Amino acid sequence: MTVDWRRLSEMPSATQQKVLLTELQVLTSELSIEQQTELLAALPPPLRVLFLLDWLDFEIAQGSLVAYFTNSHGRHAEQALEALWEIGATRMAEALSEAIQTSADPPDAARLIELTDRYEDAADQDAWGDKLETYLRRTIAAEAARR
Hints:
Elements: H1 5-9, H2 13-28, H3 33-42, H4 45-70, H5 77-87, H6 90-102, H7 109-126, H8 128-146
């Protein structure tokens, strides 16, 4: 891992996220699904949470919670749920929790579409971008202090 946590802790929030997303792209670009799962378990909290929530956000934006649960990143739904709780996005976490229960085999696609709307409304109510930013600043500072 090439992140200089001390230097990163001094950067503006938007730059921090760009640096972390670039690092994640470098770390995961050539990995199989199984290797990504192994790597995820070993990532420091800022990278782990950003990986989980970035993919959750991407999949939902591309095609709803149905897309998330039918694509490979849905396998991380429980961890994404934990990440939402960690950053304090409680309404989003509640919607995702219900979606996890609804995604059983076979998934209830109509209910997942309804929950997508609820999730997106919750994202606005939770101001999740601000919460993620606050979480990243705090955990990046903690990583910098540990090294």
